[in-house]
Amino acid sequence: MKRIIYIAVFFISMILSIALPKNAKAQDHSKAIAAADSSRFSPNKKDGWQLFNSFISNYQKDSAQVELILQHEGAIDWKKEQFVGKIKYQPLQPSISQTVPFKLLNESYALRIDDKGKCYLKFINGLMSTDNPFIIPLKVNYKL
Fold it and tell me: Per DSSP, what are the bridge partners of residue 79?
């Protein structure tokens, strides 16, 4: 049985060495980040936040929905609230600051949106991510 496993591993490694180019690199997200729609949301690039995608729209007469996919390179101090960017489209900025909780699997976060449209991300509980880069998708509804 061991011999069959060794032979299978040998053949798989041979196939991969032929199929993969010698100069294969890690995935580069720069094209996706450059093509992100930033017409209604601008990421906080100064502090390392980058935008993969955004969707900000009316949800009901008195509310809106924001969907973001953000990336951050480097260490994040999750003990502090993180300024991730701003809703630029003024009609969809809330009239008062509000905090909207959301979950990702076993982690809980909160997105605070102030009356100027600034968005702040806070880790609430679960396993703190140490991923680098850190990528987070979020979808919340809030009152206008």
Answer: none
* Inter-residue contact 64 to 116 (CB < 8 Å): no
Tell me, what DSSP letter sits at residue 128? P
CB 92 within 8 A of CB 64: yes
Dihedral angle of Cα 13, 131, 38, 80, to the nearest 10 degrees = 180
Ramachandran assignment for 77, one of left (phi > 0), alpha (psi -120 to 50 degrees), beta (any other): beta
CA angle 81, 121, 55 (to 5 degrees): 155
Please list the ranges in the chain whose pLDDT falls under 70.
Answer: 1-38
pLDDT of residue 129: 76
Q: CATH number of 28-143: 2.150.10, 2.60.40, 2.30.30, 1.20.58?
A: 2.60.40
Q: Which amino acid is at 19?
A: A
Q: What is the pLDDT of residue 78?
A: 87
Contact (CB, 8 A) for 120 and 109: no
- Could you say which DSSP state residue 7 is in? H
